[in-house]
Amino acid sequence: MSLLSTDLVASIDRALAETPPGRVVWVALSGGLDSSLLLSLAARACRRYPRPLHALHVHHGLQAAADDFEHHCWRLCSRLGVPLFVERVSVDPGKGLGLEGAAREARYGAFAARVAPGETLWLAQHRDDQAETLLLAALRGGGVRGLAAMPAHRDWQGRGLRRPLLGISRAELRRAAEHLGLAWVEDPSNAEIHQDRNYLRHAVMPRLEARWPGAAARLARTAARAGEADALLGELAAEQLVALGGDPARLPAADLAALSRPRQRLLVRHACERLALALPPAARLDSLLTQLVARRDAEVRVDWPGAEARLWRGDLYLLAPQLPLASDWSREWTGASPLSGPWGPLAVSLERGDGETPALLVRPRRGGEWLRLTGRGRRDLKRLLQEWGLPPWRRQRLLVVWAGDAPVAVLEGTEARWLAVAEGWRGRVA
Fold it and tell me: C-alpha angle with apex 314: 310 to 318, nearest 5 degrees?
């Protein structure tokens, strides 16, 4: 086997072949050995099979050497003729994620800011990283998804994430980098073993390899098999969701309660993923599932960071956190689109039938409002809400539009949707 192995070259060519033609290939470039080699190999491949290639460096500013990393990236990209883009981020470890988790969150925020939907980002994790990730997940009590560690490729927010080096060992990457005469920077924090991953890398993995040669490769294969199992569970959950009506935001509680508890957990997590909601922690999820058999008239609410669940009239609703609306909020409006709502602009317009629209006032529902509807006369808004079967949390976010002392329309505060428009008025969605 040559120093630049056939497997290594083939993994890069395969990843490039699976990238949509004409779309930019991005490489996340830290400046370390792995990402420097990945960019160099990607540049070679893109010369053989022409594709636009860009590099993205995230400057965390967490240590004095951060500027050195950036300078190395500029030098490498200049030598390779690859455009480099630098995103500077602020890492907030006080959000309960820890330093490593907060840095990862900031890094992915930078990816989303620079990489356009439809484009592909290559990450430089390798086989030894995969083994470490599996062990970390196991030690934290992770399930099949955690043991699957890092997928070789996945869709993320409309972008493709690929890890072309995931089947290659760290030792093989070093040999290839030395063979190519590459320079790279060493992150001094990688030698500090107080971080869990570094402790595994420096204190645990060498002993495992000494006792069981090839341990990292075997652990990586285990992660791949866990990934297959996770994919099958996803297919099962998708089929189960269809059987329960197909709406991930609204699950029939009785049908969900009839399933085994493991299936319940699987389905709720799958529904949250479909809705791009944060997954519930195990304790919160069990608390929620225990209440599936609550009385039909009971209102159950279980929340966790990034999402919440509501049980109402026999259905389980999964939704984003419902931010409260200040009762004194109001906005003057001309009726022209957009309306500056309390949670952002709404592409709606409202006008009187005769074309002479007076000044309007938009404010939250306070109770006692009524509307005069075409063919129905005067109707209390409270009765209309009952007719519509609107859940309580949506009722709390309604906006009522007033013309003088008369309410003339009702709007959902977080959506561009008119619920009712008074006789003689026209509401539109732009």
Answer: 30
DSSP 340-394: EETTEEE-EEEEETTS----EEEEE--S--EEEETTTEEEEHHHHHHHHT--HHH
Which two structure tokens, joined as six digits, stand for 256? 């969900």
Give the mean pLDDT per block of 10 residues along the chain (430 residues).
Answer: 73 90 91 95 93 92 80 95 92 66 83 92 95 94 90 90 94 93 85 85 94 95 94 96 96 95 96 93 92 78 92 93 84 91 89 86 90 90 89 89 92 86 89
Place of tokens 């190999």: 41
Q: Which amino acid is at 2?
A: S
CB atoms under 10 Å from CB of 67, counted, come to 11
DSSP β-ladder status, 84-88 and 53-59: parallel
Give the bridge partners for 363, in sequence order.
Answer: 400
How is residue 142 written in tokens?
């992770």
* Contact predicate 16/51, CB 8 Å: yes
What angle is formed at CA 196 by the lines to CA 161 and CA 234, rounded to 5 degrees? Answer: 40
Measure the CA–CA gap between 382 and 68, rounded to whole angstroms: 64
Inter-residue contact 357 to 334 (CB < 8 Å): yes
The span from the CA of 382 to the CA of 396, in Å, is 12
- Contact (Cβ atoms closer than 8 angstroms) between residue 381 and residue 365: yes
Two tokens, residue 317: 């609703």
Q: Detail the DSSP E strand segments found in 177-314.
A: 250-252, 300-304, 307-312
Q: What is the pLDDT of residue 416?
A: 83
Q: How does DSSP classify residue 285?
A: H
Tokens of 329: 């909020």
CB 85 within 8 A of CB 59: no
pTM (two decimals): 0.78
17, 189 Cβ separation under 8 angstroms: no
Give residue 22's identity as a one-letter amino acid code.
G
Closest CA to 17 of 164, 151, 154, 172: 164
- Integer-rounded Cα Rg, in Å, for the chain is 27
DSSP letter for 200, please.
Answer: I
